[in-house]
Amino acid sequence: MLTPLSRPRLALLLLALPACLAAAQKGPPAMTGPEEIASLMRPLAPALLQGDAQALQTLELQASDLPFRGLALLAPSQAAAGGPLPVVLLVQKTSLRGWEVNEESNLSLAAFDPDTGRLEVVPALDDAKGRAWPPPDLARPPRPPASAAQTVMTRAYRFDAARLMAPPAGPGPMQLVALAYDWVSNSAPVLRSGGGPGRPSSSPAIEPAPASTPGRLPSYEATRHHPPMPDAGVAFKFEPLRDGGQALLASFAKRASASERLAVPQALATGSGPRQVVAVVPVTLALVTLDHARPTVLRWRVPVYGAAPVAEGARIAGQIAIDVGALAPPPGSPPRMAYLFIGEHVAGPEPLAAQPR
Question: Is the confidence at residue 278, as pLDDT, over 50?
Fold first, then answer.
């Protein structure tokens, strides 16, 4: 249960935020990242998540003194399935950034289930009565003058994520992130408890299946074109294809979950010959368009190759190559920003350029 902090203690904790960062800096100040801001918010979680007005206002004042431009998200580490899910989202930007990527049209909240690959992304500023932002008649303000373009604006939002979206009804892990076109917050893990039976075991079906012709896509073989394999996490990029399409090339490494691993490796025919599949991993791609808070979402289930069964929690790694050229924006349009969700890892943004004229 969340308990309020006393006013004197709350003030002392909030005043310590810039000092903690300053003590860690040497030489010219570096830009502060979302995870650093989130880590400084966590000691204040009881007051902030309850919507304490003083805590939110003082957080805005203290954050405005920090070299931070972006999104930082705070959520409870545990929540009851089917119950409220309070979150605090700190946004700090220049007035020019606010004009280029306005919050009403671009700020969104994403909830990702790392076990199933289910991703829900909703506008973060939908109001309590369900009226979607932005209103149809919202006029675009004029571009800020050069004298005011670098003015810093800070805002802390507190809202109930469960009223904006439909999180999984049963118990299990969930990752929350905030997106604003080419900005992404830290990832906030939430363990949901109670609320019904656990998730059913997922089907090991691979989708899309690997091409049967050598050199064709989709493929899950390692190539020299893929990003280097991370120790843990996701790395991806887009590469043009000879026929004019674009390929998503990704390398990933993660801990195998019970729903991903196969008790007995399965044979799979591919264009490069037969392979043994030891795990099938959900992968979700979100393509964000400027001034649209609801992205295009694609879900795949990709194989991990190996020679022997893997244990739950063991490291597994794989590569992905899939043609996504049809999803590129029309000629002359701003690029779409891509985010790739695999397990507990989120990578991006990576621009998907417009189709050639």
Answer: yes
> How far, CA to CA in Å, does 50 sit from each of 64, 75, 288, 310?
22, 11, 31, 43
- Please state, in angstroms and as integers, the Cα–Cα distance from residue 75 to each residue in 69, 99, 171, 222, following that order: 20, 28, 17, 37
Structure tokens at 330: 């029309």
Which residue matches tokens 């037969």? Answer: 274
Burial state string for 309-328 with b = 16 or more CB within 10 A and e = fewer than 16: ebeeeeebbbbbbbbbbebb
Q: Could you tell me the pLDDT band of residue 26, with boundaries at 50, 70 and 90?
A: low
Q: At what angle do helices 53-63 and 7-24 cross, to 10 degrees?
A: 20
- The two beta strands, 78-80 and 188-193, are parallel
Least confident of 109-123, 178-192, 219-233: 109-123
Q: What one-character-per-residue DSSP string does 240-272 give?
A: E-TTS-EEEEEEEEEEPPTTTEEEEEEEEEETT
* Pairing assessment for the beta strands 188-193 and 172-180 based on DSSP bridges: antiparallel
* DSSP string for residues in 73-133: EE--SEEETTS--EEEEEEEEEHHHHHHS-HHHHEEEEEE-TTT--EEEEETT--TT-PPS
Kindly write down the DSSP assignment for every residue of 210-227, as one continuous string.
PPSSTT-SSB-S--TTSP
For 18, 217, 336, the CA distances from 5, given in Å and listed in that order, are 20, 56, 43
CB atoms under 10 Å from CB of 176, counted, come to 23
| Phi, psi (deg, nearest 5) at residue 163 | -85, -15
Per-residue exposure over 261-283, b if at least 16 CB sit within 10 Å of its own CB, e if not: bbeebeeeebeeeebbbbbbbbb
Look at residue 294 in the predicted model and tell me its pLDDT: 87
- Alpha-carbon distance of 123 to 102, in angstroms, equals 12
* Residue with the larger pLDDT of the pair 16 and 42: 42
